[in-house]
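Summarise what follows for lecture notes:
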Amino acid sequence: MKSKLLLIVLSLCTSFAFAQSYDVSGTVVDGSGLSLPGVNVKVKSSSQSTTTDFDGSFKLTGVPKGASIIFSYIGYRTQEIAVSGTKMTVKMADDAKSLEEVVVIGYGTQKKREITGAVSVVDSKTLDILKPARIEQALQGTVSGVNVTTQSGAPGAGLDIRIRGIATNGQNSPTAIIDGYVGDFSLLNPNDIETITVLKDAQAAIYGTIGANGIILVTTKMGKKNSKTKVSFNSYAGFQETSRKLPTLNATEYALLLNESYANGGKALPYPNVSGLGKGTNWQDEVFQKGAPIINNDLTISGGSENITYSISGSHLDQEGIVGGDKSGYLRNTARIGLGADLSSKIRLKTNVIYTYFTRRTLNENGLGSVLFNALNVPATLSPYNADGSFTLVPNTTGLGNEIINPLAQIENSYNDYNYKKINGNFGLDYKIFKGFTLASAIGFNTSNSESKTFNPQISYGGKVFDVQRSSVTQGAVNDNNYSFDLYGTYTTKIAEAHNITGTVGTTIFKEWGNGLTATGFDVPNNSWQFADISLTKGISETLTNSSYNYDQRRLSYYARLQYDYKEKYLLSGMTRRDASTKFGPGNKIGYFSSVTGGWIVSKEEFFGEPKFINFLKLRASYGTLGNDQIPNYGYLGLLNGEATYVFDGAIVNGSSTGQVPNPDLKWEEAKKFDVGLDMKILNDKVYIVADYFNDVRKDLLVPNIPVSGINGTGAPGASAPTLNAGSVKNSGFEFAIDYKDKFSDSFNFSVSYNVTLLKNVVQEVNNGTGFIEGGAFGVGQPAPSRMEVGKPIGYFYGYKTDGIFQNQAEIDAHPSQLALGANAAPGDLRYVDVNGDGKIDTNDKTNIGDPIPSATMGFNIQMNYKNVDFAMYTFASVGNDMVRNYERTLSDANRLNYVLDRWTGEGSTNSTPRVTTGATANNVFSDYFVEDASYLRIQNIQLGYSLNPNVAQKAGLTKLRLYVGVNNLYTFTKYRGFDPGASFGPGNRDNVSQSPIGAGIDYGFYPIPRTYLMGLNLNF
């Protein structure tokens, strides 16, 4: 009887247990009610999981009552819902601005609400809209405090990134960390990137000696656990055209103006009869290509199981230049594989390997004699071709100089090729030793090889400086490598449910090495690119025709960080790093870099009350020290890399000599960074505000070529003065960003964002013996126009101030003499200001006449979706930056822009543009007449897209089908006369990589950024 009773009880219990589990099914939709395929659906604390199908539907069997199901999907807030029945509908909330999202901060992650530093994030959604050919372009106007300037609009040209100003006359670019290792993110495929995180303040101190210019953390896309294989194909094609042409004089205008110039100079008229000249040749029309194509395709396959995630991708970009046709172009192919695997419950493997190959062809640009410089200065009266089809020669006369040549002939005779191959990536293991403690290790590596070839055919342009008497070919090969090994442990714990502590301790080993070789051969067979190879050349040269180099640099680092918060309300973080580098002398190899950051989430305080208008408010501050070691290798040593010739047995022999004078006391630059800011959400989380005040003082600037006694041999060929720590620069300013996002209905949502950065740059110290450093070039034979000097912004323009035009001789007689500038003034000439009041105009009257650094930059961006239609517009503005107009050759017979038609022709005619004459004047000395306000507002991107209804797309086996059209660089509003007010290209630094800001902002005829019309599609299946 007892046994029967026990059986009945067990049966009832079993029935009750079965009654408390369900076969759960449901649908997952987005905020608009559209089904979401591919959502991860997992039973909490269980291995049971699935993903939603094309209809957003899912089904789980045997789920216990009360168990929680976790729904997660990229771009949406993860939700956890308790099971209470057999059917459920889940609406996923957009997570774009969620304070719970995790942000990469270097050697770890942190919730956005808990971050105490100045950190900004650009996600993959923004990259999808902007469609940048290079990733740096996506930071312009989207992140406050970051300014991106183009070195050129040519395909594949570099971009300069400046975070919170320019702090040094050396390398100013931030360091990029790709998935944990140092890399070059400009070569990545934009569609491979999940997020870009910018560390702008002392938060970057965890990176020590490479963090002074800021840190950019790039996280590439990975597959998701328990998700089906997802295939994503993105493609766009378009054509490019110049965004601007300059209004030069046509043939008739040119001839009339030239006649006037010769008449004013007392010479015979060069064009006695101007009838029949018409408009002549517009050389810009001849040089610029219409409809230059650009094509991009990329394919990504990703997915994952319970233990393995994967992402495999490949991309192809082919871009032709708007100048030069096939003589200017860029082709890039990339392949990437990312893999994550749980080897056990405690060990996880992660790896990411990227292969990049690109080729690039270029033209002469950014200097006197460049292609666009010639297109602006060749007279419109000349034809491009002679009757026999050969190129017209530009006369070699005094009025046209010896560097202005036919730009079409210049393009035709430009031959160069550059090929680059790179493989980089990392391999890492995470080991959960015990609860709360994880040990992570990773090896990152970069290895690249490049080959270059430049052919100079034997050619005559009619006695110009570009004439080549002997054909030659120069070939080069470069091999660069580096690797890093990181080992760090992270311990996370909670004490008494109120004290949250995270500690990180680690070490990094970094090594960089490489070599390069260049050689030149003369007398290329058949004077042809087809035979341009050193192996085929037989010519002998009396000068050295080859060179080589190699380098080896290492760094050993130890670092630690402690993060603490009390009830997620009071936040504190401290970090320190010790770096030892072989770049510096024996007494300065080791540096220490520390910082502290803190935050207070005011909205969690009891006195704050129930959130109403303000939903979230956090105050934060940071202060710390960072370093910059971006100098050439062996900068503290004296090397035999100078040029020398010796006489042996009565013959001249090439040899080597000492190069840079050594400085064993050389050490890294030191940056003291202070930041105070707030993060705030208002109006039911619809408005997100971030504001920061920052103060960055860079000390011990690495200043090259400090004057020393000539007894050291610094005047010898190839030799140079030493590099010293001899300067200080301060950048201070204010950042403000506001985002508004709202959903007005299930069919319509809208977002708008605005950010502005106000910046002041001041040089505090220059200890090089003269008190200033010069740089840049203007005209021919004139003193350097740019300076770095105490009390002024770095790279400011140094020249004469003008005060209108002399209208008559009486004004000249009443004004201090200008003879010291090269000629007596005459009516119609520029009137210069006697700045020091000594009664004469001379070099002592030179002063600050312009600043290439903008005082404010800002971005204004709009996105909206209505049903299946989406629209986006991104804009950027720069205010207060000046540019030097140096693309006009100051020769009497060179062509000019049409503003000279308003020149002075008699008393009262104008007070802004001087007369034209072939006589001697001082009008062409460097003055503010050649400095223009280059402030601008640019519509960077407009895109309109249409997504096919998912219910229709799934019938074709697709989860997404989107078509779009767009325009990049639609229009630039500016008063600047040149091609591009946003371009900046300074003289090269000794590292042969970076450009100095001392001499930037001088326009030799910048290659304009093309306007690009795109049509594309996004496919997911």
Residues 695 and 732 are 4 Å apart (CA to CA). The helical segments are 2-19, 124-130, 251-264, 283-287, 371-377, 407-412, 809-813, 950-953. The mean pLDDT is 90. The two ends are 63 Å apart (CA to CA).
